[in-house]
Amino acid sequence: VSVKCVTVRRNPKNSLDPVIKSGNYLNNFLALHEARKDGYFDALMLNQAGHVAELSTSNIFYVKDGIIKTPSLDCGILSGTTRNFILKILTKANYNIQEGSFTYDELKDADEIFMTSTLKEVLPITKLDNLIVGNGLPRAMTLQICELFKKEVNRLVYG
Prior knowledge:
Blueprint: E1 2-5, H1 26-37, E2 42-46, E3 52-55, E4 59-64, E5 67-71, H2 81-92, E6 97-100, H3 104-108, E7 112-117, E8 121-125, E9 127-128, E10 131-132, H4 140-158
Parallel strand pairs: 1-2, 1-9, 5-6
Antiparallel strand pairs: 2-3, 4-5, 4-7, 7-8, 9-10
């Protein structure tokens, strides 16, 4: 899917802590509206410091040089259930994971990008603004993570 970095910023933690699921998604709705108006599937939101935060209804991960990176909770993101599940799966499978503060320029330089949410599960991002991510197709590590996710869900559901 394609994602646009929008002008709407993620609400700061000290204004509306993402730990509180308040149902106040106006900011997210405005971000998604801005992205959809320009033909994109979803909106990438930066936090007040200008670091990558999250998508309108999903968490974001990216891969650079074999390291899977995702914004830390300190960036003011929602600690999503699927995000946490993915982090556990990746840790169990001995993937190299880094949580932290990342710039938009670092994200633009990613080898692979994907989003996670309960409804979208693991969804590859192949276009960021007007830039093609990688070769424009879902790449190996993202596809491996999709497979790991499905296997773990099946194991938990069916035993």
